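Per-record layout

source: Halobacillus amylolyticus
name: Formamidopyrimidine-DNA glycosylase
length: 269
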Amino acid sequence: MPELPEMETYKTLLNQKIDGHPITSILINREKSINVKPDDFINRVQNQEIKAIERRAKHLLFHLENGYVLLLHLMLGGLMFYGKEEEKPDRTVQIQLSFGDQHLYFIGLRLGYLHLLSQEEVEQELTDLGPEPLDVNFSLDTFLSLIEDRRGRIKTTLVNQEFLSGIGNCYSDEIAWHSQLLPDRKMNELNDNQKVQLYQSIRFVLQQATQYGGYMSMALFKGDTKTGSYNKKMYVYDREGEECQRCGAAIIKEELSSRKTFYCKECQT
């Protein structure tokens, strides 16, 4: 599932491609991927200019000139591609937004969605999200106050969107490895130094992953060399059996709270 770095990469690249451009036509192949009738969706969205693209947690918000917002959550297996018809990957497209002869394809939206909402409805939809971990105001003191009464495991706490926004299965493992803590450690068992290290690892891993375009396997557009570059820099995620970059021991894969979890049992404590 795309997480904060992947959606931040999409936001940055799409702002360069479609910000300020009108949506000239719309194709809806899966009605369950939207929240209103197709005719209503098309009437309110077609010919509207994209005024800005914003990210919140794992969501993208496409702000339209009429005040409506397209709220995107790709969920598991969802991705996007931008380009001409002949460049489109051989994948089933659920929704297509066209900008002249260039198209934004929404692919793999079996669980994901593109909802048309008012500004007020968007705020209501996202009201339970926790702080953004890369926000300039997300300080160490803020983090320490957030975890003061937390008793859950590191991994399950980090993926809780009401605790922090945007961290999922992949980066919770990367963060735990970087902080040299086992993902099943209880938050209330951490000493002061470990709490500080966890905060620093959250910021470092997410910043690094965003810098390298996250881990998406498919480029956003032809010639896109940024999207997915973090794949080569993964510490533990999807690296079962490979050598730990820090100590050389084999990376282990287990399930933790029904989530696949990757870690090194030798140098994570």
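summary: The two ends are 27 Å apart (CA to CA). The CA atoms of residues 68 and 118 lie 5 Å apart.
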